[in-house]
Amino acid sequence: MSERIGIIMHGVTGRMGMNQHLIRSILAIRKDGGVVLSDGRRVQVDPILVGRNADKIERLAKAHGVERWTTDLNGALANPDDGIFFDAASTQLRASLLNQAIAAGKHVYCEKPVSDTLEDALAVCRAADAAGIKHGVVQDKLFLPGLMKMAMLRDSGFFGRLLSVRSEFGYWVFEGDWQPAQRPSWNYRKSDGGGIILDMLCHWRYVIDNLFGPVRSVMCHGATHIPRRWDEQGKPYDADADDAAYALFELDDGVVVQSNSSWTTRVRRDDLVTFHADGTDGSAVCGLFDCYIQPRQATPKPVWNPDERQPLNFFEHWQKVPDNFPPPNGFRTQWEMFLRHVLEEAPYRFTLWEGAKGVQLAELGLKSWAERRWVDVPALGI
Predict the structure, then answer these.
(1) pTM score, whole prediction
(2) I need a surface site. Which of 27, 108, 134, 305 has the fewest CB within 10 A?
(3) Would you identify the CATH topology of the domain 141-327+361-371?
(4) Which stretches of the chain are DSSP H helices?
(5) For 64-113, how does the pLDDT look when each residue is reduced to its tens digit (9 = 90+)?
(6) CB–CB of 276/166 below 8 Å?
(7) What is the C-alpha to C-alpha distance for residues 259 and 128, in angstroms, rounded to an integer?
(8) What residue spans define the domains of the chain?
(9) What fold is seen in the domain 4-140+330-350?
């Protein structure tokens, strides 16, 4: 086995691709001498950066000591010494790029959504399986310390019978007139593949499926609360994509998940995203890093009395789950898992099929919104 693996990295000039995938994952792995295999050997990663803008790619490569970069994607895919193709660019182009890489015999790994339509996502999955290549999709939130603690509570039986989950995600994204927005303008244009339902329901599918149970049906309402924004050049544009989503998911055994996702809300909670799970034996609330629990035995007994100020401070009755393990970088952790999958057939379950499930839920959420009704989530028939 070669002690090097070449990785074609496409779309890493953007914030997520550059920070999480290039700098904090691949370059961090390279700095540490490569990915460690089960027999203790290390295989070094050797990225080549690919993009349309030569100046951006060259500056990024030089800034981080990456020797190889190109604007010629076809040439990069033709190099037999680079076995993996990674994409973090536009959702609308992702399916065609993955198909191109699969046809070139590359293993593929990508950001989500896998595609902007379920039909295209499934076609990519089938092409990957038919080609016999390894494939994966980023499911980063499962590796966040807060959600890992929630999973530990579930596995320990802490909740008893799970009853319901509430999730709150979002923050105020500036319109771009008074000060620059924190998100790119394409997020708010339908024609560019924008919209919070397509973006976030892909996340919530794998989070809910893996932490609380398979999603069986969805009811979703979307909204475009702010129809006018200003782009990166300070020019006004019509924001016609949904910037908020209010969803209900039904799981097995009658578990109900309430999920609010919004780029038009101001935060007054522990984190930018929180998950509150209630069970017969206890409840837990987690964010990105921290998790708090309240067991049945320590649950206070509030009394409703609208004539007096509430005497209980409800935040005082929660116990913090300790940080008994160092917080991992979820993106790097999953990169290392995928690399071991490619290099030594290590088990790996976050395939493109899992990514397609996210696209499916987003499509059904949009369908529910359009038809104003509950929609069942059928099996994909993998």
Answers:
(1) 0.94
(2) 305
(3) Dihydrodipicolinate Reductase; domain 2 (3.30.360)
(4) 15-16, 27-31, 54-63, 73-77, 91-103, 118-131, 145-156, 196-211, 330-344, 352-371
(5) 999 999 999 999 999 999 999 999 998 889 999 999 999 999 999 999 99
(6) yes
(7) 32
(8) 4-140+330-350, 141-327+361-371
(9) Rossmann fold (3.40.50)
